[in-house]
């Protein structure tokens, strides 16, 4: 089997969780955990992230006719052109693909007669429309919703997201396959150094999240100001409007902005706990990454976060400030609870591997290819 894996619309550094998904899955495929052959279809932007993985199970196919440029406008123009004139892009593609998978959702390139699998990580643009501009919502309806509806099968990353996709987009739930993400267990491990970033306080809880409304920073900052331990600090990382965020912050709250990927595990190993009050996630990797580092987790009791954390986190209502204050105080101050969360967390995180994720994708590809042959 030869699976086309379209990365033409991927811009590394801008795709967030979708890029983590692509990188983890392709590394597992290259190691032999996926289909017999995967052909990654790349532009000049996505090629560098993939070429180093090329080998017996992974080929890299450049598609020079797809020219996304370097700006949001040129990206949109390239997508529109590829949708209107699919034959121009198709001529640069191998002829022996059994199916094509669109892991970043947008169905480019289109190949007539070839079965399609689409990954749609969530439908946040429907569930939290206020978090998106009108233009962003229109784009997602065109590029994401239509892509999922027209796919032979849809992959998502939690049962929570599968139910929301079925309800919001009217897709038969039997066509939607929740497959959990994996963790990079070489990076996220309790055995390693803590962070050496300058000025880091000795005792802190950690929240890695971009400053978007659904990440619930304001409630966290208000709750943290009411916690019992005066020696405890709160470390925030991520992009977004940190100036607005920090206007209401006290002296024990520190926003480090974007930190390098290799700093995240050391920050988790040194933290008293990960606090994860997000209101909405398609999956929520940070709690699992924290668990894999031996860091206790207190997290939202809603949707995908509760599904991913299972019984390995202290769960709280992310809309209740009193519940959040109590959760922070308990996860830091109750040593018996902390030890239990660390043990449960290590066991929970060990269940999430990219090899397992790749195997489930491979099985779905086989199903799609077999059904395609029967048409």
Care to describe what's here?
The longest helix is centred in the C-terminal third of the chain and has 20 residues, at 354-373. The chain has a 7-stranded parallel sheet, with helices on both faces. Helix 11 (285-292) links the parallel strand 11 (273-276) and strand 12 (297-300). By secondary structure, the protein is of the alpha/beta class. 42% of the residues are buried. Helices cover 41% and strands 15% of the residues. The chain has 15 helices and 13 strands.
Structure characteristics:
375 residues, alpha/beta, 7-stranded parallel β-sheet, 6-stranded parallel β-sheet, 13 strands, globular
Structural class: alpha/beta
Q: How would you state the average pLDDT, rounded?
A: 91
Approximately how much helix is present in the residues?
40-55%
Largest sheet: 7 strands, parallel
Uncertain segments: none
Shape: globular
What is the radius of gyration?
Answer: 21 Å
Number of H/I helices: 15
Strand order of the largest sheet: 3-2-1-4-5-6-7
SSE arrangement, N to C: EHEHEHHEEHHEHEEHEHEHEHEHEHHH
Quick take:
The protein is α/β, with parallel strands linked by helices and 375 residues long.
SSE arrangement:
Elements: E1 2-7, H1 17-30, E2 37-42, H2 47-51, E3 58-62, H3 72-84, H4 86-90, E4 99-102, E5 115-119, H5 124-127, H6 134-150, E6 153-156, H7 159-169, E7 176-178, E8 204-208, H8 217-224, E9 233-237, H9 242-246, E10 253-255, H10 264-270, E11 273-276, H11 285-292, E12 297-300, H12 303-309, E13 314-316, H13 321-333, H14 335-350, H15 354-373
Parallel strand pairs: 1-2, 1-4, 2-3, 4-5, 5-6, 6-7, 8-9, 8-11, 9-10, 11-12, 12-13
Helix pairs in contact: 1-15, 8-13, 11-14
